[in-house]
Amino acid sequence: MKTIAVLTSGGDAPGMNAAIRAVVRTACENGVKVYGVVRGYNGLINGDFIEMDLRSVSDIINRGGTILYSARSTEFATEEGMRKAVRTCREKGIEGVVVIGGDGSFRGARDLSERGIPCVGVPGTIDNDIACCDYTIGYDTCLNTIMDMVDRIRDTSESHDRCAVIEVMGRRAGYLALNAGIACGATSILIPEVEVDIEKHVIERMRKTQRTDKKHFIIIVAEGCGVDVHELAKHIQAETGVESRATVLGHTQRGGYPTVKDRVMATRMGNYAVKLLMNNIGNRVVAAQKEDVVDYDIFEALNMTKTIDMNLYNIAHEVSI
Ligand code: F6P
């Protein structure tokens, strides 16, 4: 392929810029023309393209967010929207597209691929919920951000002998909650993959640790559990007598400068994606597995399922007591 495009779609994630940089630089260095698509699939539909060069991506490796902006396109979900996107690609001579985003974005990439524009997906989401990947761009930064913020909450909880009930993102998955919970020594971690039992998983555990003279507590709740953390804090206070406060970390978790891991992996995956397209290989998803970067057929990738590491869940609760 001699002309490609790159877009970011869905929730932004720290490290997306590093991936864009890698895509653009790899393409430029290999004589491939590269367009940046503004605001994800909406930009593809509206023909909102920027021709990128080596300097278009200077000084972005350290920046959170995405310089190409992102969107969750409702129009692209329609047949007409997809047809328009194909048309604008053809008009610009775009032969392949690198899609940086989560599984919703990959479904868009699959649909575009089916309509004759080969796409390569690069996993970018804080949620780490893409089945074929051990890790997704932004996950590591987000975990570190959560850890930093929970550490701060711990300082004040400890000073006041309180219980901090903290909601973290993750959409329907508990990867952020589980790993941040371990890193922060949470007494209880509620994740959607394990049926929520407040009495057993929170109240009984707190009572048990109270008997060992523990006076302050951290409870991490994944948003996907559907638990109202404000109500939970009131319940804990009523049941245990421990003054409790709830915090929803919200979108602070999505911002900030990316960690080393996110920058390095985004660079490797962006580079890998362009190499596939340069070799006329499309309809793939780039994935990180252990320390390797590999690729999967996009249909196969979307049909895979991912399970939470229950051993890790058990270790978390065995140790944080
Ligand atoms: O997928 C990333 C994510 O931050 C989820 O963790 C969260 O559920 C969702 O996006 C929030 O979406 P929005 O920014 O549209 O509110």
Q: Give the strand line-up of the largest sheet.
A: 3-2-1-4-5-10-11
C-alpha geometry? elongated
Distance between the termini: 56 Å
Ligands bound, unique: 6-O-phosphono-beta-D-fructofuranose
Number of domains: 2
Quaternary status: single chain
CATH class category name of the largest domain: Alpha Beta
What is the level-2 CATH architecture name of the largest domain?
A: 3-Layer(aba) Sandwich
C-alpha-based Rg, rounded: 22 Å
**Mean pLDDT across every amino acid position:** 97
CATH topology of the largest domain: Rossmann fold
Overall number of strands:
11
Strand content bin: 15-25%
Please state the structural category.
alpha/beta
The low-confidence runs, each spanning 5 or more residues with pLDDT under 50, are none
Along the chain, the helix and strand elements come as EHEHEHEHEHEHEHEHEHEEHH
Helical fraction: 40-55%
Largest sheet descriptor: 7 strands, mixed
Work out the helix count. 11
What does this structure look like?
With 321 residues, this protein is of the alpha/beta class. It folds into two domains: 3-138 and 258-303, Rossmann fold (3-Layer(aba) Sandwich), CATH 3.40.50.450; 140-254, Rossmann fold (3-Layer(aba) Sandwich). Helices cover 43% and strands 18% of the residues. The protein has helices at residues 16-29, 40-46, 79-92, 103-114, 139-160, 175-183, 198-210, 229-240, 260-278, 298-303, 310-319; strands at 3-8, 33-37, 49-51, 96-101, 119-123, 163-168, 188-190, 217-222, 244-248, 284-289, 292-297. Strand 4 (96-101), helix 4 (103-114) and strand 5 form a beta-alpha-beta unit. Helix 1 (16-29) runs parallel beside helix 9 and helix 5 crosses helix 6 (175-183). The protein is elongated. The chain binds 6-O-phosphono-beta-D-fructofuranose (F6P).
